[in-house]
Amino acid sequence: MSGWIDISQPLHAKVPVWPGDTPFSYGLTWTKEQSGSVNVGQITMSTHTGTHIDAPFHFEKEGKRVGELDLSVYAGPTLVVVLEGIERLHPEALAQTDISGVTRLLIRTDAWIDRSRFPETIPLVDPALAPWLQERGVQLLGLDLPSVDPLDSKDLPAHHALARHGIHILEGAVLDGVKPGRYELVAFPLPLQDADGSPVRAVLKPI
Ligand SMILES: Nc1ccccc1C(=O)C[C@H](N)C(=O)O
Ligand SMILES: [Zn+2]
Ligand SMILES: [Zn+2]
Q1: Catalytic: which of 58, 90, 160, 165?
Q2: pLDDT, tens digit, 9 for 90 and up, residues 91-100
Q3: What is the pLDDT of residue 2?
Q4: β-strand pairing of 104-108 with 5-6
Q5: Which of the residues 29, 50, 161, 206 could staple to 127 if both were Cys, CB 3.0 to 4.6 A apart?
């Protein structure tokens, strides 16, 4: 595929969703026979299924909606870091990593092992990571996890801290086997003007 590595979860009827959230479905509104000319599909899904971005409106009443997000954050040079077996993503965990000049950071935790099911527990992002990343110029944090906060969190401290420090959130990336290093990332949200989040087709190309 011309050097692009697809880091998006395939979307199909069995893609795991947040417990209780809308299942993904794709179906035909009309078949070619019915319409007399074309197959026409429809999709139903949660905005937080699979590989997706969170707009601040997801967790803040007056937060920015998808249509208001700065697109430039979602494409460009990116560092992939592997932190396997980690339970808390905090600044010390990145102390050995050279993140100078890094605007976009993807962390591979490998903690979501069985991707056919929604995980029961996941590593968390320590809110202290947000100012630390901002000081170093990071504007996008992406994880191979369905959330940056624990699954049972209601106050979402990491979501809020990241937003407060101008760091955009990418969740559910598939980083299995992706080597640490520098890549070009493309992961644009759909132009869902008023939405709280959006699925993305996220891809990496080594640079
Ligand atoms: N879909 C949900 C349904 C209910 C409650 C939370 C979620 C989430 O998706 C939260 C997660 N932190 C997310 O940003 O994707
Ligand atoms: Zn989300
Ligand atoms: Zn989230």
Answers
A1: 58
A2: 999 999 999 9
A3: 81
A4: unpaired
A5: 161
Question: pLDDT digits over 184-206, tens only?
Answer: 999 999 999 999 999 999 999 99
Q: 129-153 burial string, b = 16+ CB within 10 Å, else e?
A: bbebbbeeebbbbbbbbbbbbeeee
Q: What is the pLDDT of residue 11?
A: 98
Total domains present in the chain: 1
| pLDDT computed for residue 201 by the predictor | 98
Phi/psi of residue 65, each to 5°?
Answer: -95, 170
User: Would you call 58 a catalytic residue per the annotation?
Assistant: yes
Rounded-to-integer distance, Cα 101 and Cα 113, Å: 31
Give, as one character, the DSSP assignment of residue 200: B
ipTM: 0.95
Domain containing residue 147: CATH number: 3.50.30.50
Please indicate whether residue 46, judged by its CB atom, sits closer than 6 Å to ligand 1: yes
Closest residue CA from atom 6 of ligand 1: 18
**pTM over cut 0.95:** yes
Mutate to test the pocket of ligand 1, among 9, 18, 170, 198 (most ligand atoms within 8 A of CB): 18
Q: With contact defined as beta carbons under 8 Å apart, do 196 and 55 qualify?
A: yes
Residues of the chain with pLDDT under 70: 1
Which residues contribute to the annotated binding site for substrate? Answer: 18
Instruction: Print the domain residue range for 39.
Output: 5-206
- Closest protein CA for atom 5 of ligand 1: 18
